[in-house]
Amino acid sequence: MANSGQEALVDLRQVRFAYGDREILSGIDLTVHRGQVVAIMGGSGCGKTTLLRLIGGQLKASAGNVQVAGQDIGALNTGQLYALRRRMGMLFQFGALFTDMSVFDNVAFPLREHARLPESMLRDLVLMKLQAVGLRGGHALMPTELSGGMARRVALARAIALDPMLIMYDEPFAGLDPISLGVIGQLIRRLNDALGAASIMVTHDVAESLSIVDYVYFVSDGRIVAKGTPEEIRASKDDFVHQFVHAEPDGPVPFHMKAAPIGEMLMGEGAR
Amino acid sequence: MIRKLGAMVIDGVWRLGFATRFLFLLLRYSGQSFLRLHLTLREIYFSGVLSLLIILVSGLFVGLVLGLQGYETLQRYGSSEALGVLVALSLTRELGPVVAGLLFASRAGSAVTAEIGLMKTTEQLKAMDMMAVNPIARVAAPRFWGGVISMPILAALFSAMGILGGWLIGVAFIGVDDGAFWSQMQAAVDIRYDIINGVIKSFVFGVAVSLIAVFEGYDCVPTAEGVSRAITRTVVSSALAILALDFVLTSFMFRG
């Protein structure tokens, strides 16, 4: 695995998560090292976002161990969890910008909440973060005035405001045009390298992800079914990986939902 | 049928428990609302100042109607000078807190639910939580206290405008004696028994409406339909809570 010499920042061991009797994830082993960009891929509803929530401490694992920066997430109280989250950044699917604040105030929000800085220093920091995502010129705009890609970039600037050690991305490419998609992809890679952080992104965009990440985990039905570097993934003979990477409509993930035989249903009582 | 009824009762009890736990958390994290006063002042502006127009205009009209109806009845018994007393007592004891509370729930309560509900739908609350900022302390508590502080002031202004409306009709238009109108009011209205009890009522209504509004927003299903249902529940539950609490408070406060 790339960067395996670096410190393991996120370490999941035999993690299981269930809502009551409904099992969402089971037997998850996942490691992310400092400096790495890791993608978690899989179809919709396979448990990818749940994995991110477990790492961020928004959910607690039903069994197993989730460690971030050497701390067991499940054993932390609210204060300790918040202290750890100050060292994490998260980009939500549609940015989740605060709609009553300008772009500047959105990026300044975590700094104002957690760092007691003079207003002049805060202004410089915010403008530098916006410069990093190419939107210094839009600091006075309101979120409603931004395109989807711009909103995602502002949210990214906000996520890195406190120079986090770990950045999580929930579907960072969803609904973006090809230019914005490329911009976000490059920003994820560049910012991760510049900050010396680790990044985990949940996505189903194969082409963009494989071009920027160091390692990929494939999740299906709540389990990790394949993992490897982008080269290993591209060369994989695994049926699931092949179907996913080549966007084939049928395979281990079937086109048809489980049902009784069609003849039985068409001619049976239910049809009448 | 029985199963449905059982599910409804269980759901109701569960929500009541959740709301109580929510109130406990609100109070626990209220310190920030007062330490960072600008957050609460902003909510007082949105809930209180922006509700002023509807409260003042409604208060005036209620006072005008009270003046007309009151005069019509009192003059039959030759006691039209007591119009000031009737208008003032009706407003400070009952109509001020109750009608202002109902208007406050429709104008400000629904807006608070919609705002928090939309923040939940667009993952803003989750984003805040992930930034190690407690959404109950940062979003819910200032809105709760903004409402609690605004409500008694709005009710007092409603009553004041109502009395002005009663004076306009009674004294300026009908010709009731001006001195008698004010002096009888002054003699009959007791600060502790009438005014303070009215303020206590409006404070209790403010707590109820604000709690319902922030809770419904925080607890809503994060979809467009979920937010719309939450707003409806805020208005309906607030109205029922105000009327029920009014009965309970009146039975303790004004027992003759």
TrEMBL record, chain B:
<dbReference type="InterPro" id="IPR003453">
    <property type="entry name" value="ABC_MlaE_roteobac"/>
</dbReference>
<keyword id="KW-1133">Transmembrane helix</keyword>
<comment type="subunit">
    <text>The complex is composed of two ATP-binding proteins (MlaF), two transmembrane proteins (MlaE), two cytoplasmic solute-binding proteins (MlaB) and six periplasmic solute-binding proteins (MlaD).</text>
</comment>
<comment type="function">
    <text>Part of the ABC transporter complex MlaFEDB, which is involved in a phospholipid transport pathway that maintains lipid asymmetry in the outer membrane by retrograde trafficking of phospholipids from the outer membrane to the inner membrane. Probably responsible for the translocation of the substrate across the membrane.</text>
</comment>
<keyword id="KW-0813">Transport</keyword>
<dbReference type="GO" id="GO:0043190">
    <property type="term" value="C:ATP-binding cassette (ABC) transporter complex"/>
</dbReference>
<dbReference type="InterPro" id="IPR030802">
    <property type="entry name" value="Permease_MalE"/>
</dbReference>
<dbReference type="InterPro" id="IPR053408">
    <property type="entry name" value="MlaE_Permease"/>
</dbReference>
<protein>
    <recommendedName>
        <fullName>Intermembrane phospholipid transport system permease protein MlaE</fullName>
    </recommendedName>
</protein>
<feature type="transmembrane region" description="Helical">
    <location>
        <begin position="153"/>
        <end position="174"/>
    </location>
</feature>
<feature type="transmembrane region" description="Helical">
    <location>
        <begin position="195"/>
        <end position="215"/>
    </location>
</feature>
<feature type="transmembrane region" description="Helical">
    <location>
        <begin position="235"/>
        <end position="254"/>
    </location>
</feature>
<keyword id="KW-0812">Transmembrane</keyword>
<dbReference type="Pfam" id="PF02405">
    <property type="entry name" value="MlaE"/>
</dbReference>
<keyword id="KW-0472">Membrane</keyword>
<dbReference type="GO" id="GO:0005548">
    <property type="term" value="F:phospholipid transporter activity"/>
</dbReference>
<keyword id="KW-1003">Cell membrane</keyword>
<feature type="transmembrane region" description="Helical">
    <location>
        <begin position="12"/>
        <end position="29"/>
    </location>
</feature>
<feature type="transmembrane region" description="Helical">
    <location>
        <begin position="49"/>
        <end position="71"/>
    </location>
</feature>
<comment type="similarity">
    <text>Belongs to the MlaE permease family.</text>
</comment>
<keyword id="KW-0997">Cell inner membrane</keyword>
